[in-house]
Automatic annotation (TrEMBL):
Protein name stated in the entry: GNAT family N-acetyltransferase
Residues covered by the N-acetyltransferase domain: 5-149
Domain of life, source organism: Bacteria
Entry keyword set: Acyltransferase, Transferase
Length: 286
């Protein structure tokens, strides 16, 4: 394979080839095959296949997540094509497309556990993406019988937005949530939207909050935490109870290791799931 990379919309007939690529890249542990039907039916996103010499060798997706901001994700390229620079050319075209469509910023999240993932992170940085946050995972096993956390309501949003704005956790997160479906600023507008989706939990007195990640069953995951001391600890323990109520094994916290409340994580039964930071949030101005 030594030709030019051609990008086109992914088609339903590409399913078998895409599944094979995902097996090559992630050894069958990839979420992309499960999302194909939804993504193929979503007209709001640009879901692209990269062809080389007439064969699909990669995919990528651009999803608008806020006015002027687009999420870049699902880059998958066969190992052979990666060695020929196909991933870089696909990424460059995606950046060009986003700029042409009038977006002012492109964001992405990536893991950095495997060699392939670390090489992808190197690629993003070499193409001008700046690191916003580097997160680790804390795991809190489910507990039975504890009180569930309170759901955030629209009426709570003004006070929660003030809490977030004044909390040092905001800077630790790089000013955004560590949400792979859309790393966005947790301002009043976004918090109101998340509360409307049932994704905000608050601690006693409204002095702490947790933002949950969409569509991550069979796991319960938190993408942003603010607050401190007993209010946050009660909220975190309640999330372990919510994991039990949802029938999942644990609650996962995605947070920077310099989060100001990591002592509270350990105090209520959350342990680092990895020995090192394993996910990153990047952004690039267009």
């Amino acid at each position: 394979m030594d030709g030019e990379v051609t990008l086109r919309p992914v088609r339903a007939g590409d399913r078998e080839r895409i599944e094979a690529i995902c097996v090559e890249v992630y050894e069958g542990r990839d979420h992309v095959p499960r999302m194909l039907d939804r993504w193929l039916a979503d007209p709001s996103a640009s879901f692209q296949a990269g062809e080389l010499d007439g064969q699909v060798v990669g995919i990528q997706r651009l999803l608008p997540i806020a006015p002027g901001i687009v999420l870049y994700h699902a880059l998958r390229v066969t190992p052979e094509a990666r060695r020929q620079g196909v991933g870089r050319r696909m990424l460059q075209q995606a950046v060009s497309d986003a700029r042409r469509l009038g977006f002012r910023e492109i964001r992405l999240c990536t893991e950095v556990l495997s060699t392939t993932e670390r090489k992808a992170a190197d690629l993003f940085e070499s193409e001008g993406f700046e690191l916003l946050a580097e997160c680790a995972s804390w795991k809190g096993a489910r507990v039975e019988g504890a009180e569930l956390p309170q759901l955030g309501q629209a009426s709570d949003v003004p006070a929660l937005a003030r809490l977030v704005e004044s909390d040092p956790a905001l800077a630790a997160y790089g000013g955004v949530t560590a949400d792979w479906s859309g790393p966005l600023e947790p301002d009043a507008e976004h918090l109101a939207r998340l509360a409307g989706e049932g994704l905000v939990r608050i601690g006693p007195g409204g002095r702490s909050l947790a933002v949950l990640r969409r569509d991550w069953l069979p796991k319960l995951a938190v993408t942003f935490l603010a607050g401190a001391n007993s209010s946050l600890e009660e909220l975190l323990y309640g999330l372990r109870a919510e994991a039990d109520a949802q029938g999942v094994s644990a609650c996962w916290l995605l947070a920077p290791e310099n989060h100001p409340s990591t002592v509270s994580f350990g105090a209520v039964g959350y342990d680092l799931a990895h020995d090192e930071k394993h996910s990153r949030v990047y952004a690039r101005a267009l």
